Amino acid sequence: MPITIHPMEAADWTAVSQIYADGIATGEATFETAVPAWETWTNGHLPNCRFVARSEAGEVVGWAALSPVSSRCVYAGVAEVSVYVAPSAWGQGVGKRLLQTLVDSAEAEGIWTLQAGIFPENEASVKLHERYGFRVVGRRERLGQQNGRWRDVLFLERRSQKVGT
Fold it and tell me: How many Å apart are CA 148 and CA 34, to the nearest integer?
């Protein structure tokens, strides 16, 4: 699928929030149960590391963003990755383009470690992250409940070879 990657803007939120809601509905993307309001979401994510993927027709078909893992200055170079793709665009390389853009943007911003928490059952997401240098560093057993079911979460990280070496 021919796509272009653009910085996310507030005007993209309607499409982004629908893709996020679709991810929540799968039960395999996040513990979240509802999409937050734009103000809540934007305040929790880094302003320079958020992107949307657009189809040739200009439709938003995916998004990616980084959120800080801590407000402590020692962790200023560590961020958590989120990548979501519209179901209509699954398997078409959108996630690859978004994650590569996010990795490049993170390094340009001085971020040396990216981390992700992924349900083990979400094999496509695990494989995508591993393709871009993430490695599983642990399995957090029974980390939380989702619909009354305990869920494990794989903890993945990617250390930059350019920043923080």
Answer: 16
pTM equals 0.93
CA dist list (Å): 138 to 75, 111, 121, 150, 165: 19, 21, 15, 17, 23
SS3 25: helix
Q: How far is CA 97 from CA 35, 51, 73, 92, in A?
A: 24, 10, 30, 10
Residue 106's pLDDT is 97
Which SS3 state, helix, strand or coil, does residue 42 take? Answer: helix
Return d(Cα 49, Cα 90) in angstroms, integer. Answer: 22
| Parallel/antiparallel/unpaired status of strands 135-146 and 149-159 | antiparallel
Distances (CA, A) of 51 to 16, 58, 92, 111, 149: 10, 14, 17, 16, 32
DSSP codes of every residue in 120-157: TT-HHHHHHHHHTT-EEEEEEEEEEEETTEEEEEEEEE
Q: What pLDDT digit, counting tens, does each position of 11-40 carry?
A: 999 999 999 999 999 989 999 999 999 999
Q: What percent of the chain is predicted at pLDDT more than 70?
A: 99
Do 62 and 53 meet the contact criterion of CB atoms below 8 Å apart? Answer: yes
